[in-house]
Design goal:
By secondary structure, this protein is an alpha/beta fold. Helix 1 crosses helix 3 and helix 5 packs parallel to helix 7.
C-alpha cells in the first residue's frame, strides 16, 4: 500500500536527496529496513545550554529521519526526557522515586511532540504514541496500530517510557523494538561508540568496533542498562552505538557503513 501524502500544509525543506555519504551507493538496499532510533533527551538541547529544546538541533534529526523514509526505511523512535528532567538523579535529592520517574516520562512527551513537529515540517507523516494516556496530544500505545503506521510509511515516536516508574527509556527502546519487530536499535549518542573506558578520563581508552552483549554485561560497559541489554539479547536485536552529531551518520549506519560500535548476541 502506498504511503500517505504529506499532511503538513507548511511544506518541506529541500535537500533530502543530496549525494550519499562516502562509501554508500544509493542503489544498494539498506542493511535494515525497520529500525528503532533511540534519542536521549540531552540530544534535543542546545549543546551550549544543555537544557530545553533546540529547534535547529531537532530539525537536523528530522532531516536525517526524513531521508531514511524517502529511501524506504521504516523508522520508529524512542525519546528520553533528560533535557527537562532525569527521574533517577533528581530523585536522589529526596523526591519519591516513582514520582520523579513519572515526571521524567511526561518530559519525554514534550520531546516527542517537538520531534513530531519537526518531522511534519519536512513532509513526514508522524504519529506520537504515549504509554500514559493523554488523548488530546497523542495516541495511546497500541502495538498493532504502531506496526500499521510503519507499514503506511509513517514515523512513530514512542513517548512516556514504558508507562511505569523504575524503567529507563533504554529499556523502553528494547521493549518497543521487540514489539514492533525492529531489526536493530540505533542508540544515538554524543560519542562515536563504546570504549574500553571513559575516553574523557582515560586517554588510553580504545573504541570497540564489535562486542558481544555478554561481554558488555560482564565488563559493565555503559551501553544500555542491564534490563535493556538482556531484552535485546533475548530477542536477538543488535544495537549500534554511534555519534549522532556527525551529519549523515544515521544514513551511514543504516546502509552498513562501519561506524560506531555494534553490540551483537552470541556470534552475530
Amino acid at each position: 500500500m502506498k504511503a500517505e501524502a504529506d499532511p503538513s500544509p507548511r511544506g518541506a525543506r529541500t535537500g533530502l536527496d543530496d549525494l550519499p555519504a562516502p562509501g554508500i551507493d544509493p542503489a544498494d538496499p539498506p542493511r535494515w529496513s525497520r529500525i528503532l532510533l533511540k534519542l536521549s533527551g540531552e540530544a534535543f538541547a542546545d549543546p551550549e545550554v544543555g537544557r530545553g529544546i533546540s529547534p535547529t538541533v531537532v530539525a537536523s534529526y528530522a532531516d536525517q529521519v526524513a531521508e531514511l523514509r524517502s529511501r524506504g526505511v521504516q523508522v520508529a523512535c524512542v525519546v528520553g526526557g533528560g533535557n527537562f528532567w532525569r527521574g533517577l538523579s533528581d530523585a536522589a535529592a529526596g523526591m519519591d522515586r516513582a514520582t520523579a520517574d513519572n515526571m521524567g516520562m511526561l518530559a519525554t512527551v514534550i520531546n516527542a511532540l517537538g520531534l513530531q513537529d519537526a518531522l511534519e515540517r519536512v513532509g513526514v507523516p508522524t504519529r506520537v504514541q504515549s504509554a500514559i494516556t493523554m488523548q488530546e496530544v497523542a495516541e495511546p500505545f497500541v502495538r498493532r496500530r504502531a506496526i500499521r503506521h510503519l507499514d503506511l510509511g509513517r514515523v512513530v515516536i514512542f513517548a512516556a517510557g514504558t508507562g511505569n516508574p523504575f524503567f529507563t527509556t533504554d529499556t523502553t527502546a528494547a521493549l518497543r523494538a521487540a514489539e514492533i519487530g525492529a531489526e536493530v536499535i540505533l542508540k544515538a549518542t554524543h560519542v562515536d561508540g563504546v570504549y574500553t573506558a571513559d575516553p574523557k578520563l582515560d586517554p588510553a581508552a580504545k573504541r570497540l568496533e564489535r562486542i558481544d552483549s555478554t561481554e558488555v554485561l560482564q565488563r559493565n560497559l555503559k551501553v544500555m542498562d542491564a534490563a535493556a541489554i538482556a531484552l535485546c539479547r533475548e530477542n536477538d536485536i543488535p544495537i549500534v552505538v554511534f555519534d549522532l552529531m556527525v551529519e549523515g551518520n544515521v544514513r551511514r549506519v543504516v546502509w552498513g557503513d562501519d561506524i560506531g560500535t555494534l553490540v551483537f548476541h552470541g556470534g552475530g
